[in-house]
Amino acid sequence: MITVVLGMQWGDEGKGKIVDLAARRADYVVRFHGGNNAGHTVVIADKKFSFHLVPSGIFNPKTVAIIAGGTILDLEVLVGEMELLEKAGIKLKHKLVLSPRCHLILPYHKALDHAYENARGKNKLGTTGRGIGPTYADKVSYNGLRLYELLHWNTFVEKFTFQAGMKNKILTTFDVAPVDVKTELVKLKKFRTQLLPYIQDTYPILTAAIAKKKHMVLEGAHGSMLDTDWSPYPFATASNTLVGVVNIGGGIPIDKVDKVVGVVKAYLSRVGAGPVPTELFNNLAERIREKGAEYGTTTGRPRRIGWLDLEEVRFCRRLNSVSTIALTKLDILSGVSEIKVCVGYTMDGKKIHYSSCGYEELAKLTPVYKTFSGWKEDITKARKFTDLPKNCQTYVTFIESFVGIPLGLVSVGAERSANILAS
Ligand code: GDP
Ligand code: IMO
Ligand code: MG
Question: Total domain count for the chain?
Answer without folding.
Answer: 2
